[in-house]
Amino acid sequence: QAQLRESGGGPVEAGGSLRLSCVASEMFSHYAMGWFRQAPGLDREFVAAVTWDGTDTDYADSVRGRFTISRDNEKITVFLQMNNLEPEDTAVYYCAASPGIRNVRQRPPSNYWGQGTHVTVSS
């Protein structure tokens, strides 16, 4: 079954860190994967992406240098290490996966989505 399950979100103070995890079912082992986020009333926006083999990464300008995406292909799990969190990072974070591409940044129609995990950063 196709399944993406995010975890690791929660409340955190500004300047703190969180690590999000996305555990994927086996069918996603050769899919490009990444993270998007969506704040209330706003569009879902790109955060970070990693190729299916973990060799290339991409980041939104707003998180570059603070967030790191990585992939454990043995466990079919994608991580997002978030450091120096800011209140503007508050959102629901969604795991994404797509076949046939190397970068999910363009949000292709073929994307699969997890249910999201909440991150709330207080000042």
Question: Can you put this structure into words, describing what you see?
Answer:
It is a single chain. This protein is an all-beta fold and 123 residues long. The chain is built from no helices and eleven strands. It has strands spanning 4-7, 10-13, 18-24, 32-38, 45-50, 57-59, 67-72, 77-82, 91-98, 112-113, 117-122. The strands form two sheets. Strands 2, 4, 5, 6, 9, 10 and 11 form a seven-stranded mixed sheet that branches. A hairpin with a 4-residue loop joins strand 7 (67-72) and strand 8 (77-82). The termini are far apart. The model has no long low-confidence stretch (mean pLDDT 95).
* Structural class label: mainly beta
Report the count of strand segments: 11
Poorly predicted spans: none
- Which shape, going by the Cα principal axes? globular
Helix content: under 10%
Number of helices: 0
Whole-Å distance between the termini?
40 Å
Give the ordered list of helices and strands. Answer: EEEEEEEEEEE
What percentage of amino acids are in beta strands?
Answer: over 45%
Radius of gyration over C-alpha positions, nearest whole angstrom: 13 Å
The major pleated sheet works out as: 7 strands, mixed
Question: What would the average pLDDT be, to the nearest integer?
Answer: 95
Can you give me a brief rundown of this structure?
The mean pLDDT is 95. The protein is globular and about 40 Å long. It is an all-beta fold and 123 residues long.
